[in-house]
Design brief:
The chain has a single domain, classed as Jelly Rolls (Sandwich), CATH 2.60.120. The longest helix has 8 residues, at 37-44. Mean pLDDT is 83; it is low at 114-121. Helix content is 7%, strand content 33%. The protein is mainly beta and 121 residues long. Residues 53-107 form the Cupin type-2 domain. It comes from Aquibacillus halophilus. It holds the Pfam family Cupin_2. InterPro entries: Cupin_2, RmlC-like_jellyroll, RmlC_Cupin_sf, UCP019307_cupin, YjiB-like.
């Protein structure tokens, strides 16, 4: 399966969030209608320590590990890169690769109808 890279973003150190020389990668609608396949994709690639939940509502970053965010239902507005970064709307089926050091927090989160709260992102 081949994916087209749709969007990349670079963020500089803002004095609070180090960010990264590596780009944030956004893959819109990568899972199309099979959103639950994110779990299988992560497991197949040996990407461990996954969870179903959301993104913290405060800026944070991971100093020594990259993160892959797969949106399994609903939608969210996420701020990337710290207070002077960029807010992006992401939707069910989207994936975002967040390099180590890149700040992120959720600004707004909307669940799909009849969706359990733990499966928002």
């Amino acid at each position: 399966m081949e994916y087209n890279l749709e969007q990349t973003f670079l963020f500089k150190d803002d004095g609070e969030i180090p960010n990264s020389k590596l780009p944030l990668l956004v893959y819109p609608s990568i899972m199309e209608d099979n959103f639950s396949n994110f779990s299988e994709l992560f497991r197949t690639n040996n990407w461990k320590n996954s969870w179903t939940g959301g993104v913290f509502s405060y800026h944070h970053f991971h100093s020594n590990s990259h993160e892959v965010l797969g949106v399994i239902s609903g939608q969210a507005k996420i701020m990337f890169g710290g207070n002077h970064g960029l807010s992006l709307n992401i939707y069910a089926g989207d994936a975002v690769v967040i390099p180590a050091g890149v700040g992120h927090k959720h600004i707004e989160q909307k669940l799909a109808p009849h969706s359990p709260s733990k499966s928002a992102i």
